[in-house]
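Practice problem: predict the structure.
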Amino acid sequence: MLIKKKGRLTPSMEDYLEMIYRHCTTQGYTRINQLADELNVGAPSVTKIVQKLAKLGLLNYQRYGIVQLSEEGESIGSFLLERHMIIEKFLRNIGVNNTLTDTEMIEHNISADTLRNIHLLNKFFEEEPTILRKFNEFKDLTEMVEDYS
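Answer:
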């Protein structure tokens, strides 16, 4: 979990910051209604979290205006998206079908050391695709044997 000088980012705040980062990398900004639609929540809920993130110095936000990341918010948002992608890729590598649900559950509770090692394992699988293929063959074979048990 990320710790800020002025307070702790909750999993919900991390999700909002990650989504704001996603929007800002393509558009340079986002709006409350865009976030509400994307996160499937009401605009008042988004406004509340955005105001908290702005108080932490992670966003620039004016009521009824656009939402933009501060330099620090951009840095943290980048990390949050990278963390999400590392975990999602690992889950796809090991054959998890619904990666979004599991990624969301894991990403807020993973240690830096575990994340670093998962990232290295993902890179290893990229450089040694035969190892990943062997794992998938082993997994398929094990599942077939278990089906006949």
